[in-house]
Design goal:
- This is DUF2909 domain-containing protein.
- It comes from Roseateles amylovorans.
- Keywords: Membrane, Transmembrane, Transmembrane helix.
- Helices cover 75% and strands 0% of the residues.
- The protein is mainly alpha-helical.
- It has one domain.
- 4% of the residues are buried.
């Protein structure tokens, strides 16, 4: 599970970096930048859904914050 999260996070950062580079270059137009940002949003939503599904299936357990009285 950790590998999936790390790979997805690297993909999200890569798409964000790609959109930033395309924004600064302005050579390929706004369509490429919009596509890169849409990919980033799609990867973020997919990662969120994978984490929710994993918690539902019991593959990961929420620990919460320790409560001290």
């Amino acid at each position: 599970m950790k590998i999936i999260v790390i790979v997805a996070f690297i993909g999200i950062l890569g798409a964000l970096f790609s959109a930033g580079v395309l924004m600064l270059r302005r050579q390929k137009g706004k369509a490429s930048m919009a596509r890169a940002l849409a990919l980033r949003v799609g990867l973020s939503v997919a990662l969120f859904l994978i984490i929710l599904f994993s918690a539902y299936m019991g593959w990961i357990k929420p620990t919460g914050l320790p409560v001290s009285h």
